[in-house]
Amino acid sequence: MKKNIKDDVKKVLITEDEIKEAVRRLAREIDEDQKNSEKELLLLGILKGSVVFMGDLMKELQTPVQIDFMKVSSYGASTVSSGELKITLDLLREDLPDYDVVIVEDIIDSGNTLSKLVPYLRGRGANNVRTCALLDKPARRKVPFAPDYTGFTVPDEFVIGYGLDYNERYRELPYIGVLKEEVYG
Ligand code: PRP
User: Fold this and answer.
1) Domains in the chain: boundaries
2) What is the pLDDT of residues 83-140, one digit of tens each?
């Protein structure tokens, strides 16, 4: 029988309803900022953690939107972020100057990924690059970085679900949970 992944959850940190409400609020904020722009909006999801959030966010936006994805790695199998940013799936398009880009992330931890990715995209011609993170964990910051749009500030606990994984598991949970210590300890 399939193991019930919910048995590994110590507690629910953010419920499905709370996530829905935050996604709506973030969409309204982005819509408002996009109101007077002549350019199209491009949501750039960072694989894999952002996919669930990105899917819900794009449905809530009133602004017409295009989507694209990049994959960068900063963690490996460990639970501690390293300083390196490695692009493992790059953007194939060369038309970034034509868009307002909003990078969509599930979580900001050390700040390494976004503090390197934003200048990288500007270097590729994107004039307007903003960042939207569902979760922000400022206690783990190694590089100063503040997203333009933030869903929730979370404490320094091992969060999983709604796209976030531990060793590639738990992404399908519909809420943000805290993983039991015995699972990763
Ligand atoms: C996570 C998360 C961010 C990054 C944040 O991705 O989705 O991309 O780490 O950490 P940082 O602020 O310390 O750079 P991860 O490398 O775990 O890959 P995943 O999205 O495929 O799970």
Assistant:
1) 17-157
2) 567 899 999 999 999 999 999 999 999 999 999 999 999 999 998 999 999 999 999 9
Instruction: State the fold for domain 17-157.
Output: Rossmann fold (3.40.50)
35: its two tokens: 């109101």
**Residue 58: per-residue pLDDT:** 98
Residue nearest atom 21 in ligand 1 by C-alpha distance: 48
Question: Of all atoms in ligand 1, which is nearest to the CA of residue 107?
Answer: 2
* Cβ neighbours for 151, distance < 8 A, ≥ 6 positions apart: 19, 22, 23, 26, 53, 133, 134, 135, 136
Q: Which one of 109, 136, 156, 165 is the catalytic residue?
A: 109
Tokens read off for 36: 């007077």
